[in-house]
Design brief:
Order of helices and strands of chain B: HHHHHHHEEHHHHHHHH
Shape of chain A: globular
Largest sheet of chain B: 2 strands, antiparallel
Structural class of chain A: alpha+beta
Strand order of the largest sheet of chain A: 1-8-2-3-4-5-6-7
Oligomer: heterodimer
Chain lengths: 259, 361
């Protein structure tokens, strides 16, 4: 199991702390297309649930968008979680896969080992001095899938040894674009790996994406990860886009962060 | 005292006329261009801006009629007028001007490479440093595509600061080349007084401009700041500036009377830039430059809140305040406008008293 605070944080991403509205699942947002630089980490898909809600409040206030009451203490009545998710997606608020995993692992390792994972991890060499300084100042924003999958930061783990806190990395999942993905293992029991990740599925349209749980049922223990049964949103096989992405990945591994 | 009373009376007499003119020509605050006009602040939409003209006009009229002195009041009035003119242009362009197309460095570099006309390529190459300056300064301002941009304001404020520095350095005499240090007498800084003056004039003008966001905040705080200056100019023996400061106080009393919530008009950049410049110049003129952060305490706190917010946002990726300048932060945590203004006034009054005490020690 992940640490209790890490579990609480995951629950917060599933149920963002918007005052007065329950059940707002954090949407997915990746800064690759927008390419904001030197921005708030919330605006580049790396924020904590509280930061994301706070930024929603500020954006709503700044641009007269009426999500919150005038004193900003509570969301307007008769708003549904879907209304708020739509507002967030329209204003580029959400979390991306490595941002989500980094935030949860940070809390997990602080609680379980007393170590700040984001400060320990290798991001840039000191020879790239400016980048190095920025990564010291803003570690979470500079941790991406490649950093997590770097041998200096994590080691590969066999399928049978997978445990809570391990990550599943998928490198080069697109034939032409440089797209990577990472998922966090939440628990392993009864031959099932339960994972959680921030992702977007094309079948869900513009407003359906976000944080999602899934399972990988180990039906062939001696085979690799892709041979197992992947289930997400009760969909398996070709209908499960996470599985399709994993199948396309040039590198698919379970890794354990070196702490 | 007569000038104070005269300025106050003239201010009260001109205020209704100014309000009528501003309404007639529809120089009003527009909600669609202003993201801060939300909720309780929504009532501010439709309030006339450029109310600061009242103070500027009254100070100009009273000083030119009764206190005109080529040595002492000529340049402060001139620099104030330049800054006010800059502010007025910004106010008018914000109300009547269209959207401006602003190029960034990347766009300019592309144009230099691909433009069909060779003279346009040269034009974009020559103006590239200016474009880079604009992009650099834009990190301190909120995104806006109307009115005068941050880099243009800074350039014109630099001119106002340079005029002041030239006046102090070459016209006022050797006594003004010294910089008063609190508790430690004065040191002769020679020509270095020029960049110091330019910096303080630009910084203070922008500080007052940034603080101008709530009804009555800047007016009340400026009254206290100029009151401190009037006392200090008297006690320091530079009495030529005492009536001048009293004139400004008189005009500000009339302005603030109409500016408290619900405001009959708002100061606008014309007033905040003009009076910010004047505040700095009058402090410099009585050699109390280093007291400016205390005499204009609220303004300096407000501008530092913006600087810190930008620093936190760009370098650390987090917000220090919910919103900058500081008065918006307090609004977002639920304080009402009156509470913020009153508390800021009290703090400003207290710090001005401390400043006067420091100066008199």
């Amino acid at each position: 199991m992940l640490s209790s605070l890490a579990e609480e944080l995951i629950d917060e991403y599933f149920n963002l702390p918007f005052p007065g509205v329950a059940g707002v699942r954090c949407p997915y947002f990746n800064n690759t297309r927008k390419r904001s630089r030197g921005q708030l980490r919330t605006l580049v898909g790396k924020g904590t649930p509280k930061e994301i809600v706070e930024e929603s409040k500020i954006i709503s206030t700044q641009y007269h968008l009426g999500i919150f009451e005038n004193d900003c203490s509570v969301c307007k009545q008769n708003l549904t979680p879907d209304d708020i998710r739509k507002f967030m997606i329209d204003h580029d608020l959400g979390i991306e896969c490595s941002g989500f995993v980094s935030q949860v692992l940070r809390v997990h390792y602080i609680e379980s080992k007393g170590v700040d994972f984001a400060r320990k991890i290798y991001i840039y060499p000191i020879s790239k001095f400016l980048r190095y300084v920025i990564s010291i100042l803003r570690p979470i924003e500079n941790i991406n899938v490649q950093v997590l999958a770097d041998d200096r930061n994590s080691t590969t783990v066999n399928l049978g040894e997978a445990a809570a806190g391990d990550i599943i990395t998928m490198l080069d999942t697109h034939p032409t674009k440089k797209i990577n993905h990472v998922m966090l293992i939440r628990d392993v029991k009864d031959n099932k790996i339960q994972y959680v990740h921030a992702r977007t599925w094309s079948s869900e349209g513009r407003y359906g994406h976000g944080i999602m749980n899934g399972t990988i049922e180990i039906i062939y223990p001696k085979d690799n990860l892709i041979s197992q049964r992947w289930t997400e949103k009760n969909l398996s096989g070709e209908q499960n886009e996470t599985f399709l992405e994993a199948r396309r990945a040039k590198v698919l591994q379970i890794r354990r962060v070196k702490i | 005292m007569l000038l104070l009373i005269g300025a106050t009376v003239l201010g009260f007499a001109l205020a209704p006329i100014l309000t009528t003119i501003l309404y007639k020509y529809k120089i009003l605050r527009k909600a669609e261009f202003d993201y801060t006009l939300q909720g309780e602040r929504g009532v501010k939409a439709g309030t006339p801006v450029m109310g600061g003209l009242l103070v500027i006009f009254v100070v100009l009229i009273i000083t030119m009629l009764f206190n005109w002195d080529r040595r002492y009041t000529y340049v402060p009035i001139g620099a104030m007028a330049i800054s006010a003119l800059l502010g007025a242009s910004d106010d008018l362009l914000n109300v009547f001007g269209g959207k401006r197309r602003l190029r960034n460095v990347r766009h300019s570099l592309t144009l230099i490479r691909v433009h069909r006309k060779w003279f346009m390529k040269i034009w974009h190459a020559v103006t590239l440093p200016w474009t880079a300056f604009r992009e650099l300064t834009s990190i301190f301002g909120s995104k806006q595509d109307r009115g005068i941009q941050t880099h243009e304001k800074l350039f014109l404020q630099f001119i106002a600061g340079a005029i002041t520095a030239w006046w102090v350095y070459s016209k006022l005499g050797q006594n003004w080349h010294t910089l008063w240090i609190p508790f430690d007498g004065s040191i002769d800084v020679g020509w270095f007084i020029i960049p110091i003056i330019i910096f303080f004039v630009m910084f203070t003008a922008n500080a007052v401009n940034i603080a101008d966001g709530l009804d009555g905040l800047v007016g009340g705080s400026l009254i206290m700041a100029f009151l401190g200056l009037a006392i200090l100019s008297w006690t320091e023996g530079r009495t030529a500036f005492t009536p001048f400061n009293m004139t400004v106080i008189g005009a500000l009393i009339a302005y603030t009377y109409f500016n408290v919530k619900p405001a009959r008009f708002q100061m606008g950049d014309v007033g905040s830039l003009g009076l910010g410049t004047l505040l700095a110049i009058n402090a410099i003129a009585i050699n109390k430059t280093l007291l400016l952060p205390l005499l204009g305490f609220i303004f300096y706190i407000e501008i530092f809140s913006v600087i810190l917010q930008v620093f936190f946002r760009r370098l650390l990726g987090r917000r220090l305040f919910k919103m900058a300048p500081l008065h918006h932060h307090f609004e977002l945590i639920g304080w009402n406008e009156e509470k913020i203004v009153m508390r800021f006034w009290i703090i400003q009054a207290f710090v001005v008293i401390v400043a006067v005490w420091i100066a008199l020690r």
